[in-house]
Amino acid sequence: MFYFAINVIYPTQIATLFTTPTTSFRYAIVLTLPQNLGLVTGAGLLSLFGTRIGHWKWTLTGSVAVMVVFGALLGLATPERKGMMIAFVFLAMTGFGWAQYLSVTFIQFGVEQHELGISGGLAGVARYAGGAVAISVYTSILSNSVSSSAIKLVLPAAEAAGASPETALAILQALPLGATALAAVPGATTAMIASAGAAFQQCYVIGLRTTALSSLSFGVVGIIACMFCNDIGHKMTNKIEIFLENDVNAEKNKFH
Predict the structure, then answer these.
(1) Which of 6, 66, 157, 210 has its CA 20 to 30 A from that of 34?
(2) What is the pLDDT of residue 43?
């Protein structure tokens, strides 16, 4: 579930902190690359160094810990910390890339052969059901945090720039709708909109921090769960346990 927190937090950072309506869509696409490249890097590192390092349970635990630590550090985001967030999301997704593919191995090797279908099915259900719950939880936390902060920050900021309470409220309601809606607010000036916009951005800083910190509980549970995984070291060899039924070695299969 922690992975889905990153999928909510980082794209929201790109949309609200690191780009504006006038930003080139190409630049916005480039900002998404660290997240995807981190995933590929983690999987590649597992392929290259997993066997050499061994200690499978502890490398799984360590990779999940890396994901959780750097994923939670995304809560430090501000508009001025774009480079830091790019580095953190890359490192978090590198940990996820390693853990994701190694966890599949644990699912396959952590049970008896005749229980592979059950373990794979339960893993799929947990992933998709947990993902749906996680997206709902994190989105709700972010939305509620931004909404509560907006009342405290945006309205005073607009009023400080000269807006009446009614105009300030209208600006607040128009902010999520974009420049066209803001331009249609009666009595709104450029200074009012700019002041309210800066405050609204700060609301997302607070909301994203709250969301990142809330994800820590799921991450800690995941780390603890990794510590109690079965040891699969004795199975990580070049020995083939199962042969195709139409293979010449089919008689070596324990189950047919």
Answers:
(1) 210
(2) 94
